């Protein structure tokens, strides 16, 4: 499968890259744990980038390519979830989209009054327009705005839509992990080129080069599998992308923090905008073991003999 962007996709990525250019760095002397921008959100919506998968001749792969740009910013913005799940479920999304797995007891990303929630509950999904009485804000250091849903059985019932919701949620999650991980690795590569120890840049040491090369390969694989899942549109491809993304997360977090040392643990340095997000994304939609088990069941269950018989 050739997943290289075509000329139209390259132009689309370039256009969103120009739009987000003013947001590629945090404000001077920023010590925030969650960095958001209403202006960035407004510009993305106004330009129609969230609706790219609805346009003739475009689809989920185009949305993933744009998400790789948007989610690589230090600013946290809800994008890929609404860009993929709105068209997949044929629903209109108003405001930021929160994706929720019932029972909705844990804090959820982008769950805020004025937005929309999609809740997977058994075989069905529920579309909720969020108001103040439905949402409890949650303080966090995970670099995402979080909230807790007080009531999930309200709104519009989407019968039988839960499996499709989880499939495209997995694609969105893998694509977001890939974009955030790439930003963390890119920041680390720039740092080791400048940071000097024993009279030379620490990036000149072969051990560091090898480990960052492995992180880069892992990021490229995450993005390739997320693109493949978007292009194929199958549950198996979505699970394969998510398994690899979850598997690579801890290694990438460990290495980028180790090579940036103490500065990477401070709020005035932007690394936490990426690694804190990766920590939260890593646990979304279940553990790595659960996701891998689901992939194995999807891929091989019908052909594996029952050894108990």
Structural description of this entry:
The protein has 309 residues and is α+β, with helices and mostly antiparallel strands. It has a domain at 163-298: Butyryl-CoA Dehydrogenase, subunit A, domain 3, CATH 1.20.140. It has nine helices and nine strands. The strands form three sheets. Strands 1-3-4-7 form a four-stranded mixed β-sheet, covered by helices on one side. Strands 2-6-5 form a three-stranded antiparallel β-sheet, with no helix packed on it. Helix 4 (80-89) packs antiparallel against helix 5 and helix 7 runs antiparallel to helix 8 (272-282). The protein is globular. The chain starts with 6 loop residues before the first helix and ends in a 9-residue tail after the last helix. The model has no long low-confidence stretch (mean pLDDT 92).
What is the 3D form?
globular
Name of the CATH superfamily of the domain at 163-298: Butyryl-CoA Dehydrogenase, subunit A, domain 3
What's the helical proportion of residues? 40-55%
State the major sheet: 4 strands, mixed
- Count of individual beta strands: 9
Mean pLDDT: 92
Q: Write the H/E string, N to C.
A: HHHHEEEEEEEHEEHHHH
